[in-house]
């Protein structure tokens, strides 16, 4: 019995981050028609870059994933292509195998999304049966049918959508809970008097970096500070202004500096920042034509998201 999806079928992918776009790339190469739907206003996901106007010009912050690695041969070839095209380069300060997008982390995701029929500002709230397969239910979503629906969203969001359809896959998603992360973004009038470019696991700070020191970046002195999952969990309901002050103080402690007021600042709360990875790679129910991919099915790295999306596309064939 053929448990795959015949060529030239219409497939919906919920989530236009690295996993969803990797899956879309592979499916289109197989001859499928793919539409991606994402609740965000633009591409990036957890590889997003935020830009904030300051008195010294625009400050940019890679406030999600700070870098990515490339160890799989196929992914390494893709990263090499990005490098040749000026979309990515190495970042030695974070490690010998660290890569970043140019001019921001979201550059590679934006490039991938530009090749597909990607719809932003689409909040999918449910998946329902249609005359031919499935239809998506949610805000600003046209009534159309799909032969298969693939989820490329965090485990917690996948569980909600899968619950009424496939209880087994929903349980697998519920078991792969993600850690949250408060991220602070701070721009300063002057360069902070330290040669430190990156910090790892210092008190409540899991990571901090001088963003403007990354290759291809410019603008005023800009720091990204990411709190540990445990600290974030304790402060999930804390007022954002209070979180800003606490994280700025922690940066000063970590750098052994008295840090003055920033010229611009913001915080972002990632509810689903990082999962250990279930090791499943991808999930595919051929009978229902429903599948799932994402880093939470493999490991907490950008490369794992790409590999999971590729694996799900392979399962469909």
Please explain how this structure is put together.
The chain has 317 residues and is α/β, with parallel strands linked by helices. The chain has two domains: 10-45 and 108-176 and 276-316, FAD/NAD(P)-binding domain (3-Layer(bba) Sandwich), CATH 3.50.50.60; 49-66 and 179-274, Alpha-Beta Complex (Polyamine Oxidase, Chain A, domain 2), CATH 3.90.660. It is built from eight helices and 17 strands. It has helices at 18-29, 73-84, 107-113, 155-162, 167-175, 229-234, 240-255, 302-316, and strands at residues 10-14, 33-38, 49-54, 57-62, 88-90, 99-101, 117-120, 124-130, 133-138, 148-151, 179-188, 198-202, 205-210, 221-227, 264-274, 283-285, 290-292. A hairpin with a 2-residue loop joins strand 3 (49-54) and strand 4 (57-62). The longest helix is centred in the last third of the chain and has 16 residues, at 240-255. It is globular.
Secondary-structure content class: alpha/beta
CATH topology of the largest domain: FAD/NAD(P)-binding domain
Number of helices: 8
Q: Which outline best applies?
A: globular
What share of residues are in beta strands? 25-35%
Fourth-level CATH superfamily of the largest domain: FAD/NAD(P)-binding domain
Number of strand elements: 17
For the biggest sheet, the summary is:
6 strands, mixed
Order of helices and strands: EHEEEHEEHEEEEHHEEEEHHEEEH
Rg of Cα set: 20 Å
Secondary-structure arrangement, i.e. CATH architecture of the largest domain: 3-Layer(bba) Sandwich
The residue fraction in helices comes out at 25-40%
Model regions low in confidence, pLDDT < 50 over at least 5 residues: none
């Amino acid at each position: 019995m053929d448990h795959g999806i015949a060529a030239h079928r219409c497939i919906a992918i919920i989530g236009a981050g690295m996993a969803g776009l990797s899956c879309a790339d592979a499916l289109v190469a197989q001859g499928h028609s793919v539409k991606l739907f994402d609740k965000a206003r633009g591409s990036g996901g957890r590889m997003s870059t935020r830009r904030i106007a300051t008195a010294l010009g625009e400050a940019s912050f890679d406030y999600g994933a700070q870098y990515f690695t490339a160890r799989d041969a196929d992914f390494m070839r893709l990263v090499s292509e990005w490098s040749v095209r000026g979309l990515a380069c190495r970042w030695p300060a974070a490690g010998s195998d660290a890569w970043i997008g140019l001019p921001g982390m979201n550059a590679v995701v934006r490039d991938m999304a530009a090749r597909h029929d990607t719809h932003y500002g689409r909040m999918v709230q449910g998946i329902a049966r249609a005359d031919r397969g499935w239809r998506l239910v949610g805000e600003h979503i046209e009534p159309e049918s799909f032969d298969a629906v693939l989820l490329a969203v965090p485990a917690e969001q996948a569980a909600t959508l899968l619950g009424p359809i496939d209880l087994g896959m929903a349980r697998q998603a519920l078991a792969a809970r993600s850690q949250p992360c408060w991220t602070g973004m701070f721009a300063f009038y002057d360069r902070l008097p330290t040669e430190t470019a990156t910090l790892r696991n210092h008190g409540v700070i899991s990571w901090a970096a001088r963003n403007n020191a990354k290759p291809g970046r410019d603008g005023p002195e800009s720091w990204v500070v990411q709190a540990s999952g445990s600290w974030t969990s304790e402060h999930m309901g804390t007022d954002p202004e209070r979180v800003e002050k606490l994280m700025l103080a922690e940066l000063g402690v970590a750098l052994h500096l008295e840090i003055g007021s920033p010229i611009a600042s913001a915080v972002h709360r990632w509810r689903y920042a990082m999962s250990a990875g279930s090791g499943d790679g991808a999930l595919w129910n051929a009978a229902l034509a429903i599948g799932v991919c994402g880093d939470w099915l493999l490991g907490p790295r950008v490369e794992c998201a790409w590999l999971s999306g590729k694996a799900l596309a392979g399962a469909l064939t």
